[in-house]
Each structure stands twice: as structure tokens, then as C-alpha cells.
Specification:
Largest sheet: 3 strands, antiparallel
CATH topology: Arc Repressor Mutant, subunit A
Shape: globular
Bound molecules: zinc ion
Strand content: 5-15%
CATH class: Mainly Alpha
CATH architecture: Orthogonal Bundle
Number of helices: 5
Helix content: 25-40%
Number of strands: 6
Order of helices and strands: HHHEHHEEEEE
């Protein structure tokens, strides 16, 4: 039996796991979907916003700072200012198409996965990673003041390399 046949036989079971959580509506043509997302956020689909939306949402779940997206846009030769990147990210967050995760009070990441989930923060390279366990829960939440309810619990577990 040739090794080629063995390789072909191996391809019977696609093992790609479905993406975790709710993904932005990218079922059809991504370009069309980005357009639809911008429209749903009440944003005019300008070329700059379309390009930023494409960079953000065409690669699955991601955690990006405004600076990181600005750098990607620059590399992709998208003529856009850092201010526009910030504005667009904030507008998409207001429209709940992105979720903000703050670390250290100085770094703000924008998460394309807006479903409820928690994060590891890798201190050595400032990377935010989803905690794979969707069932993670806190054993006891604090009592909240009268008239309030908990909107969301954001847990960031900071990791450093063992010495
Ligand atoms: Zn995340």
C-alpha cells in the first residue's frame, strides 16, 4: 500500500472543532458580513471601516489592542489613522460586536468573541488568551448593593513563567 493512499484514508474524519462561543455573523461572504455588521452598528461602511472590520473579524476569535490593529492596518496598506482605529473599535464595542477587556487599567484589548468567557493574561508577552473551560465559575459572588445586579464578571487570571 502506498503511503499516499494511507494519507488519503486519514482524511476521512475532519476534526476541526467548531469555534467556541458566538462568532460574529460570518456565515457567508465575509465582505458582505462586515458590511452588515457595520450597518447594524449604525456605521457607514467606509473603505477604512470595511478594511478594519475585515482585519478584525476574518480570522476567528482574536484579542487586539488598538495599536495592534493599527499596525496590522499599516502592514496591509490601509490608509487609516490611530484615532480612526480607536473610534471604530469603540463604536463596534458600543454596538456589542466587540467586547473590551482591560488589563492593568492601561491596556485595553478588544475581543471579537463577545460570548461570556474568561481570560488568561500572559505577563511575559502581554498576550490575552481565552480560558478554555466554559464552565468555569466562581464559588461565591459578593452581595451587590440594593437596586443593582451583576451585569458581567470578567475574570483575568494572570500567568507568569515559572522560574
Ligand atoms: Zn476572549
Amino acid at each position: 500500500m502506498s503511503s499516499k493512499a494511507a494519507m488519503l484514508n486519514n482524511q476521512t474524519a475532519p476534526s476541526a472543532a467548531p469555534p467556541k462561543g458566538r462568532q460574529p455573523a460570518l456565515n457567508g461572504c465575509p465582505w458582505h458580513d462586515v458590511n452588515a455588521m457595520l450597518q447594524s452598528a449604525g456605521l457607514r461602511p467606509t473603505r477604512q471601516r470595511m478594511a478594519l472590520g475585515w482585519l478584525l473579524f476574518s480570522k476567528g476569535a482574536r484579542h487586539l489592542t488598538a495599536e495592534m490593529l493599527y499596525e496590522e492596518a499599516t502592514l496591509a496598506k490601509v490608509p487609516v489613522s490611530l484615532a480612526t482605529v480607536y473610534n471604530t473599535l469603540n463604536q463596534l464595542t458600543d454596538a456589542r460586536l466587540l467586547r473590551q477587556v482591560s488589563v492593568d487599567g492601561t491596556k485595553t484589548y478588544f475581543d471579537t468573541n463577545v460570548s461570556a468567557h474568561h481570560h488568561f493574561y500572559l505577563e511575559h508577552n502581554h498576550e490575552l488568551v481565552d480560558i478554555p473551560d466554559p464552565h468555569l465559575s466562581l464559588s461565591r459572588l459578593p452581595d451587590v448593593p440594593e437596586g443593582y445586579e451583576i451585569a458581567r464578571v470578567d475574570l483575568v487570571v494572570r500567568l507568569r513563567k515559572k522560574r
